[in-house]
Specification:
Keywords: Aspartyl protease, Disulfide bond, Hydrolase, Protease. The protein is mostly beta strands. It is built from 4 helices and 26 strands.
């Protein structure tokens, strides 16, 4: 849903940064429209990207939550979560939240592409993200999650479109747009690289022009049948100078994915251009660690290069794989474009105009 903000009186944007972990998120009075910046932490090395969100009013409850543009549901571990994965991690306590409202008769259940399942109850509360308050936000209070959910964060915030939600939630971003709280109906990511100790950042309500070269910004509109995801056409893929020329391919731009995931046949075509690649039979291809390969993706007529360090990935000492892997993506022509690519660009998710923009990092 897009509500135009151009017709509203202009208020000076409220720009502020929320440090992660070093101190709690604070609240402040906002103008009618706002843009919020927050640094983002990562599960090293470059596995997942997360930041702190405040849940509820009353006693502040701050939690590290993964930002996932590939899904549409918000959840956090609840105090009654008994799964081993919850362990002694921080948990949401509804008794401390004066704005907590359980949704009677509505359970919460979600399953992700990697097999992770989370179950619990649905409720609403006020959350604060990047300094902007979202009232009556629906979320899942998790009491059961897959045992192998071993991450430093305790929840996931879906940032696809609301129709992607498995629990018919309205996403926090959409709520902010519907409530006319943002300067622009957009959010943007810069994803850092652990090897460079480069920062990661989420901007809500626009983009941060200090982080990219504006003259390189290129937008690509979403495909019509996108299922609520950030799915755009892929013009081409280039492997060591050779164009694959696979027709009709699309890519879901997914900050919740570490790799670039292709259907098996496309992965076979991709690695046929790398003579030293060996299919491990588990969705990955082994590569000599000393090799460097020039991999590029073409969107909107512009070629975007992937740093060789983001392609040849060491998973154990002297044991490397390519960051392009294969799995059942749900379609023979659908790719999932994760952080292996997104670390190399500044990405703007434009919900109002249903498009994705890439730009060179500053």
């Amino acid at each position: 849903i897009f509500l135009s903000v151009d017709a509203l009186p202009y208020d000076k944007p409220n720009v502020h940064t929320i440090p992660l972990k070093s101190k709690s998120i604070t609240r402040r009075r906002l103008s009618r429209r706002a843009i919020g910046f927050m640094p983002v932490d990562q599960e090293q090395p470059d596995v997942a990207y997360f930041g702190q969100i405040t849940f509820g009013t009353g006693t502040p409850q701050n939690f590290d939550i993964q930002f996932d543009t590939g899904s549409g549901d918000l959840f956090v571990f609840g105090r009654d979560c008994g799964s081993p994965a919850c362990g002694d991690k921080p948990k949401y306590d509804s008794d401390l939240d004066t704005s907590f409202n359980p949704i009677e008769g509505k359970d919460f259940s979600v399953e992700y592409a990697d097999g992770t399942e989370a179950n619990g109850e649905s409720a609403t509360t006020t959350i604060v993200i990047a300094g902007i308050s979202v009232e009556a936000q629906e979320f899942g209070v998790i009491n059961e999650i897959s045992d192998d959910f071993e991450h430093p964060y305790v929840g996931i915030m879906g940032m696809a479109f609301s129709e992607k939600s498995e629990n018919e939630q309205t996403t926090p971003i959409t709520n902010l747009i519907n409530n006319n709280q943002l300067d622009n109906p957009q959010f943007s990511f810069m994803l850092g690289r652990d090897a460079d100790q480069s920062p990661s950042e989420l901007t809500i309500g626009g983009s941060n022009p200090d982080r990219y070269h504006a003259d390189t910004l290129t937008f690509t509109h979403l495909v019509d049948d996108n299922g609520g995801t950030w799915e755009i056409p892929i013009d081409n893929c280039i492997v060591d100078g050779e164009e694959l020329n696979l027709e009709g391919r699309t890519g879901i731009i997914d900050t919740g994915s570490t790799r670039i995931i292709l259907p098996p046949d496309d992965a076979d075509a991709f690695y046929s251009e790398i003579l030293t690649a060996i299919d491990n039979g588990d969705g990955s291809y082994a590569l000599p660690c000393e090799e460097q390969h020039e991999i590029s993706l073409v969107f909107g007529g512009r070629t975007w290069n992937i740093d060789p360090r983001d392609f040849t990935v060491e998973i154990d000492q002297d044991d490397c794989i390519g960051s392009v892997v294969y799995a059942d993506t749900g379609s023979d022509t659908e790719w999932h474009i994760g952080s292996a690519f997104l670390k190399n660009v500044y990405t703007i998710f434009d919900q109002g105009n249903r498009q994705v923009g890439f730009a060179e990092l500053a």
